Every structure is written in C-alpha cells, then in structure tokens.
Amino acid sequence: GLSQYSSDPRTEWDLSAYSTRDQVLEAMRNLRYKGGNTFTGLALTHVLEQNLKPEAGARLEAEKLVILLTDGKSQDDANLAAQTLKNLGIEIFAIGVKNADEAELKQVASEPLELTVYNVLDFPLLSSLVGRLTRVLCTRIKEKSNKENADIPVNTGPQLSPTDLKISAVTSKSMHLAWSPPLRPPKKYRIVYYPSKGGIPKEVVLDGAVSSLQLSNLTSHTEYLVSVFPIYDAVVGDGLRGVTSTLPLSSPRSLRVSELSHNSMRLSWKAAQGATQYLVLCSAAPDGAED
C-alpha cells in the first residue's frame, strides 16, 4: 500500500489493491508527485487509521511495516504519532532525502536504528538502498513471524475486537464514547482522536476492564476521527472507528435596539449559553470606521 502526504495525506492504493509485483511497479510509474508541506505526524496517523485496517487489506496475522520517505523536517509532532504506531507493534523504517532531519528520523524509527534509519543526499541515490533495505525488511519479517506466529490467532473476530462504538452527549467541547468489549477482555485500550482536517493526534490509554470514555477540551464545530484499539500481550485486535462533529459555540440571539438618541442607543439580546463575556462592535454605515 502507498500513501503520499503534505498537509493532507492521500491514499494512492491500499494493501489489497494489487496482487503482483508488476502491478505495483506499474502503479509506481503512474504515480503523480504531491508537493506541499511536511506534516509527518498526520501522515503516520493516516496510515494507522486508514491503511492498516482490514477494509484496506491489512491481515491481523501479518507483520505491519511502515516505510517513511521524507525530504524535510516535520511541521507537526511526528514523534507522538510514531510512538503510537510502535506501541501497537508496527515497525517503522525512516528514509531521509536531502533536507531530512536525521535526529527526527531516529526518533520516529523503530529499534535497532542501524537497521531502520537511512539518509541519502539526493533522490537518485535512493536506488543504492534498495538491495540492503529489501534484505533487512525480509529478514525482520521472518524473525518476527517465527517468534510471534504461535501466539497470534489468525481469525480473531469478536474474540479480540470490540464492537458497536457509540458516540453520545456531544457538546461544543466534549463527547462520550462507549463500546461493547470483545469476548476476551484486552489488557488495555488505546483511544486515538484528532480533527479530520488535520491536527496533532491525541491518545488515552484505558484499563481493559473499562469500555467508555469522556473526551473533553475539544475544539468546537470540528469533525473528529476516533479510534479504539484493544491491546493484548501478543496482538492488537481490530480497531473501532467513528466520526462525529462537536457542536458550534452558542450564539446570542434576538438583537434589539432601543432608547435611541442623537449620540446613544441601547442594545439587548438573548444570552449565549456558556458565554463569559461579549464583544460589541459598532461602525457608522455603510463604510464608516469601526469604533
């Protein structure tokens, strides 16, 4: 699977899109470069939320590897997003080109860094990494598969995955999450949430016996993506995902003007719920300066 990113990540194709090497290479040849900003944290969260899920072709029993290719320093918190992936057992390889920040690459990548961090001076030099990177990736997959396969069930279904995510009591600053736990209680839950139009992902870790959460200090009138992941000792169950928008802030209503004189007027209105102050602006119509 492959995604490109700038300020808005974009999935080019999912894990399940192609089944042969030639198809993948043809898709690469037809790929159009996406220029723009460098929001690496948002991109890594996009990969977790959109690309590493069963609907996109991710298989629970397969090893999860992410290869990050970047030519600049991230404009958001890439380390927090990377840590979320790594905590879920996803291995990150970081490849820097030109102006990439090597310190950031080392923060983002999984251990051991001598196998997962690469840096070259220009794009044509990437070809020199292909052989070594291919061998490292294949070796890592075999090592992890041999070590963990005995513990990972191939078909988890309701055994390891929560169901029925309900988002309720939505206000301008908060919302309540609740879900039905899997048949086998997890060790803990990891809840990740962030604005759909871009923002730093935030996360909460809950004990596996808890199946609800109140999210607070949210931004008003904003669409949020929410995911709930069950964490076990040797496996991560399928995540639950939901989307909802916080309410706009309450507005004052029914503005009335009274007690007019040559240099004054009285304004009155119905209060806005939760407002602590009001800002009143007036200007001479139609083009007068604001007083």
Characterization of the model:
It is found in: Secreted, Extracellular space, Extracellular matrix. The structure is a single chain. With 291 residues, this protein is α+β, with helices and mostly antiparallel strands. It folds into 2 domains: 2-148, 3-Layer(aba) Sandwich (Rossmann fold); 163-246, Immunoglobulins (Immunoglobulin-like), CATH 2.60.40. Helix content is 21%, strand content 27%. The chain has 6 helices and 14 strands. It has helices spanning 21-29, 40-51, 78-87, 102-108, 113-116, 130-148, and strands spanning 2-4, 10-13, 65-70, 91-97, 117-120, 163-168, 175-180, 188-195, 202-207, 212-215, 223-231, 240-245, 253-258, 266-270. The strands form 5 sheets. The chain has a 4-stranded antiparallel beta sheet, with no helix packed on it. A 3-stranded parallel beta sheet has the order 3-4-5. A 3-stranded antiparallel beta sheet has the order 6-7-10, with no helix packed on it. Helix 2 (40-51) runs parallel beside helix 3. The longest helix has 19 residues, at 130-148. The protein starts with a strand and ends in a 21-residue tail after the last strand.
